[in-house]
Amino acid sequence: MPQANEKWAAFLLSLVVPGAGQLAAGSVWCVPWFLAAALLAGVWHVTGTNLTGALWHAGQAGLLVVLGLVSAEHAKRLLERRRAASDTRVLKSSLMYSSIRRSAVRLRLEVHVAEDADELWRRVSDLQSFLTIDPFHEKITLMRTEPAPGVHVVLWHNTFGRRSVRFGKILRWEEGRGYALSDLSQRGPHRDFPHVFFILVEPMNAGAESVNGQVRSRLTIDVRGKWTSRWIPAAVGLCWMRWVMREHARLLRKAL
Amino acid sequence: MQDIGDTWGKFSESEQGLAVPPRFCLRCQELLPWYEQPSPQCLKCGLQFNPDDSSTFRTQRQLARWKFWFPGFCLAVASGVISYAVCLLGGDMGVALFCAVPVSVGAILGYGTRVQIWLLGMLAIVAISAIVFALVSMNFAGLFCGMTLSLIFLIPVILGIILGVLLRVAMAASRWDQRWFFPLIFFVALPYIVQAIESSLPRRTEIATVRTELTVHATPQEAWDAIMFYEEVKHDPPWLLRLALPKPIRSEGNKQREGEIIRCFYDRGYLAKRISRREEGRLLAFDVVEQHLHFERDVALLDGSFEVQPLPDGKSRIVLITRYERKLSPRWMWEAIERSVVHTLHGHVLEGMQRKAELRHNEQPARDVERYRPAPSQSPDDRKLTYQPFPLVVPSVESARS
């Protein structure tokens, strides 16, 4: 059975051949995708005899790209970690704040969870499980048996199928409340978007944890980093990071 | 420099006397200390590790050799194919196509790969082959053009490699942190920049004249009667013509009168020639009025002529002249190839004419004792002559007699 960390392989497969990623994921959804691709090819074959020109070819290419992208995203989602719909605890997750000033980047994600803060902390403090909900984190290796300030962490990344390793350190650890973790490039602390995660778990409405009859707690993920690329404008970088955070929020809704 | 692990031994004895396999840092791949540390970490980069957890260190060094050449090689081939196709479709067949594209391919290889010189040479050859194969497969070039392209690409690719390697060496000392990308982007964009510059410059028309002559052992009248176009030559053309030109099928029309149109059909198109001047027994000139042979962007045929000149001792000289507009540039690079093809074409036509003229010349029985004789199967009374196959190079009558 394919693993969740093979989602990018399925993504790339379906990007090339719509339906191939679904097949790799062992899903019957591959059949409609194969049929859609065959139908598209058939329509082109029939109509293509009468239509020529740059616009027609551009349309063909555009349709092919759209079909590939939608199929790839679907294949990826099939392999994402998820809880049963009835078991989900997340009430709301959203990107609250994002800004870039000069090269300083700051983004904040908030997740409202229908469970006790202690229970949420138990899951958030399991670094291997919690940090791999991030769309690009594939594996986490803790260099000591227990997390503590100063313990090094290896973050194995998989970005659209390209694997890379980044290194970090637990900067702060407050049991039951939160922690901070750096994520730095292998090439050095000043290269490739160095950033720090601040993870904070707190009960909603301190002192009155019940809202609408549900016990609620709040998980805040704050990302602070430095945009180091000189050839990609910071605004483009911010758009990219917003997309990543929204994707992270979606994955948290499914996995928490 | 000797690895400290070699000096101390990869398998060091621990306190219990058991062999400890070597461990390497996850980040810098340095050999990790085998002895106990209060806080186990790499002595070089400081990354921690847990001796009891094998996922926190490597058990062997990893060197992905393909990373040193494969991405650069793929980029060079992809850029070469795309830029060639774009330059071919978008403008003239000139410096951008035949110089900038291969220089760009070579420079990407030189800058984007870090391998030994001999391997770089191999990569260049494989890259050229891959590009030519892709272009021929996608119908952007024919087989002959592809082979010619391989040879033409060789020198500019080598120059590009030298440029790329020199730039990489020079940039290695630089502190510019984007040095890996920007030169590569420039090399990828180079063909398009050159194409844009080339298209903006005025283009000079150049007419080339190729003249080939042959002395035949036949009278001027016999030589005149043997005049034929390329499409009418019966024997097989040389390999160069078979590769470079479309295969002739037939020709229609009468070349006996001025103003007549002769249509010559090939397997990939046709050519229409109008007889522009005819001086009986001396000169036959024609203009090419239509050309649809799939090499219109390489050369445009203009006109040509057959001239028969009398020589002493019953010999004649046949002079073939072809004029065409040269469209390929750099012209100095293509001139030798164009002339070679046209001379081969002339040689083929002249050989056909020589065979026909000398056959007619030798049809007189007194001269044909050696060359022509009755077929062995025929009776002596049957005087019908049988033609013996000619060798590849037609010998003169004297040499045949001897």
Architecture overview:
The complex is a heterodimer of chains A (256) and B (402). Chain A has helices spanning 7-16, 20-24, 30-47, 54-78, 117-124, 127-130, 234-255, and strands at 90-101, 104-113, 137-142, 152-159, 162-174, 178-185, 195-203, 210-211, 214-215, 217-226. With 256 residues, chain A is of the alpha+beta class. In chain A, strand 1 and strand 2 form a beta hairpin. In chain A, helix 1 (7-16) runs antiparallel to helix 4. Chain B is an alpha+beta fold and 402 residues long. Chain B is 40% helix and 18% strand. Chain B has helices spanning 4-8, 70-90, 95-112, 117-137, 143-172, 182-200, 220-225, 239-244, 331-361, 397-401; strands spanning 12-13, 19-20, 206-216, 248-252, 261-266, 269-279, 283-292, 299-310, 316-326, 373-374, 385-386. In chain B, the strands form three sheets. A seven-stranded antiparallel sheet of chain B has the order 3-9-8-7-6-5-4. Chain B has a two-stranded antiparallel ribbon with strand order 1-2. In chain B, strands 10-11 form a two-stranded antiparallel ribbon.
Mean pLDDT of chain B: 80
Number of helices of chain A: 7
Helices and strands of chain B, in N-to-C order?
HEEHHHHHEHHEEEEEEHEEH
Question: First CA to last CA of chain B: what distance?
Answer: 78 Å
Question: What key phrases describe this protein's structure?
Answer:
heterodimer, A: alpha+beta, two-stranded antiparallel sheet, 7 helices, 10 strands, 31% strand, B: 402 residues, alpha+beta
Which helices and strands appear, and what pairs or packs with what?
The complex is a heterodimer of chains A (256) and B (402).
Chain A: H1 7-16, H2 20-24, H3 30-47, H4 54-78, E1 90-101, E2 104-113, H5 117-124, H6 127-130, E3 137-142, E4 152-159, E5 162-174, E6 178-185, E7 195-203, E8 210-211, E9 214-215, E10 217-226, H7 234-255
Antiparallel strand pairs in A: 1-2, 2-10, 3-4, 4-5, 5-6, 6-7, 7-10, 8-9
Helix pairs in contact in A: 1-4
Chain B: H1 4-8, E1 12-13, E2 19-20, H2 70-90, H3 95-112, H4 117-137, H5 143-172, H6 182-200, E3 206-216, H7 220-225, H8 239-244, E4 248-252, E5 261-266, E6 269-279, E7 283-292, E8 299-310, E9 316-326, H9 331-361, E10 373-374, E11 385-386, H10 397-401
Helix pairs in contact in B: 2-3, 2-4, 2-6, 3-4, 3-5, 3-6, 4-5
